[in-house]
Amino acid sequence: MGGMGGGGLLDIYAMAWEHLRPGSSPVDWCEGNYLISSNIAEFVNTFSNFLFILLPPVLIMLFKEYGRFVTPGIHVIWVLLIVVGLSSMYFHATLSLIGQLLDELAILWVFMAAFSLFYPKRYYPKFVKNDRKTFSWLMLLSAIAATGLSWWKPIVNAFVLMFMSVPTMVMLYTELQRVSDQRVYRLGIRSTTVWAVAVFCWINDRIFCEAWSSINFPYLHGFWHIFIFIAAYTVLVLFAYFYVESELPQRQPLLKYWPKNEFEFGIPFISIRNPDSKDWLVYCSLYMQDYDYDYKHRKN
User: Cβ atoms within 10 A of the Cβ of 28, count?
Assistant: First the structure.
């Protein structure tokens, strides 16, 4: 019995090492391996994740107000985006199976967290009965089940995640038809355009690698990382806006841009206007220099 137990433990160690071994993933993107660095498999694909690491801390700062007056869950999503970036860097640096799974599962949990927080109630299945808590439990159980299933056929995970983005963008299009704020609408159009460019890069890198390699440009997956981050976080900003407008209209959401609000190609975030709340007025006096002007301007 002791020998069998020891043998079983060795088998577990061997399987774990096999999953950690560089090159153990069945997925290999178009960029050549170990061409720039002998320690990093796909150099460009690894470091093109820089936005996932650098921008979420800025978003956490910009959404401080949103986290306090709407839902602190928004910060969980920004942290998960950092996890996506780190996991993607590890995967492309090693091309290990465990790296691939960490990358894909982090993306899956971003989807599920965002659905739990912001999925419009008008699209809920009937058995949920318009209850966000019940829907959130459904998303959690779905994420757990999908996490287990992801080990079954790792080669198809990326295609499944890509498919999940399609109904999200269709839902975004539907929601944009309901908004009156043209700044929100324009951001939605830009987000959709960037998403389409990102998908173009992903498909071409995955399916037409030989053609792009023939012109010495096997780096479209790196551009995918840049474009998909921009598309993903702007879509999250939009759904954060839709959520407040639909379920907490008294909070008066307003799309703004940092560092200059008039420049619509800055970093978008949601400001919350609620001048009737005492804690809101205290907060604004501490953190929003332009609040007094905006408030007096609206009153006049």
Answer: 13
| 225 assigned to a ligand binding site | yes
CATH number for the region 18-298 comes to 1.20.1070
- Residue 75 is assigned to a ligand binding site: no
Q: Is 18 annotated as a binding residue?
A: no
Q: How many C-beta neighbours within 10 Å does residue 74 have? A: 23
Q: Is 39 exposed, middle or buried (0-12, 13-18, 19+ CB in 10 A)?
A: exposed
Q: What is the CA 122 to chain-centroid distance, rounded?
A: 22
pLDDT above 90 for 23: no
- 275 or 135, higher pLDDT: 135
Strand partners, 268: 257
User: Considering only CA atoms, which of 268, 278, 273 is closest in space to residue 295?
Assistant: 273
Q: Where are the domains of the chain?
A: 18-298
Q: Is 65 annotated as a binding residue?
A: no
* 224 labeled part of a ligand binding site: no
Q: Is 33 annotated as a binding residue?
A: yes
At 117-167, the pLDDT tens digits run 999 999 999 999 999 999 999 999 988 988 888 777 776 777 778 777 888
Q: What element of type H or E holds 271?
A: strand 267-272
CB 187 within 8 A of CB 268: yes
Q: 221 a known binding residue? A: yes
Is 29 annotated to bind a ligand? Reply is: yes
